Amino acid sequence: MNKMNSKMVLNSIFIICLLLLVLVSCGIVTTKIGDIIGHPRDYADKEVTISGEVTETFSLFIVKYFVVRDSSGEISVVTEKPLPAKGEKIKVKGTVKETFSFGTKTAIVLVEASEKSK
User: The pTM is what?
Assistant: First the structure.
């Protein structure tokens, strides 16, 4: 490979990496829910974007959450926003949190980013 070709390859790799970084940071690339549930320590306190179908909604005074399911699993999403409709396809950006652990059971939720934090 001559010097010109190797420079073009390096520039192409740099541009591809930069585009991937932009896609991930803008929330265009989503994280599989099964990855979060299967490896909660890797995602704890990290901001991710998930997408899927709303399967349940719940509101009691100040606590509002809904459940999102994709092909790999489901997760509860705590929110301050209005609840989505059951059956709605949705994309949600938020922070992964562990709510509690009891024996071998651990509850993992996604705390949806508020408008203020965007």
Answer: 0.72
